[in-house]
Description:
Strand content: 15-25%
Helix content: 25-40%
Largest sheet: 7 strands, parallel
Structural class: alpha/beta
Oligomer: single chain
Bound molecules: 2-amino-2-deoxy-6-O-phosphono-alpha-D-glucopyranose
Shape: globular
Amino acid sequence: MEIIIRDDYASVSQQAAVAVADLLRAQPQAVLGLATGSTPLGLYQELIRLHREENLDFSQVTTFNLDEYVGLAADHPQSYHYFMHDNLFRHINVPHENIHIPDGTASDYRAFCESYEARIESCGGIDLQVLGIGSDGHIAFNEPGSSLASRTRIKTLARQTIDDNARFFDSVDDVPIYAITMGVGTILDARKIILLANGANKASAVADAVEGPVTSMCTASVLQNHPDTIFFLDTEAADQLKMADEYRWIQDNKPGAP
Ligand code: GLP
């Protein structure tokens, strides 16, 4: 696990975008796993800028999103379909048929989840997975207590997540209580993972994930078992890390560091 601490959200977003852009330039047919929430917005804006100003090409890219609320149609303004099209896909040249987002209105959820897993596999697996982190340490919608071997399935949201995400809805009662989400095991299969976190309300979850025990009570902690994961953090999100100075020192002295 590599920990990169930056002064602010803008530089976290910019550094994460460099990681994505480097991959796409080396591997134009890469399969990206994408996240929603407010955290990756800066990353998506930077990718859009790189597409417009530096010809970053998405024409051969395939994407899989982590999750979607059950019951929200693709045109619902709070659906993750809407979010992704509004904040990324309509601004870049990824082919529509290469975009995959769980269907929150599927009539047979179990069959849909199995087919989502099969589709990821048939595309060769995810090369790079982008993650945020919930304030309770969840990744995607793998709430505390989720099996660390879980696959794509329906999950009941934790009440804390419902409260956290209520800011996007008119009222907390409008927040769906179920979601389709990639499982922890699905996420761990990605060849590379980048997790972004900013702000003081993520500091405790980040500390649990990076320096706590690997436990289903903080599903992000399982990333300690992944061979190629980078956490991009701003100073506030890194504030409760006991070894923050050590991580900074390691970055400053990395082979090849300026
Ligand atoms: C939701 C999403 C997660 C995301 C989390 C944090 O629960 N399912 O993928 O990481 O929110 O969101 P935010 O970035 O808005 O804090």
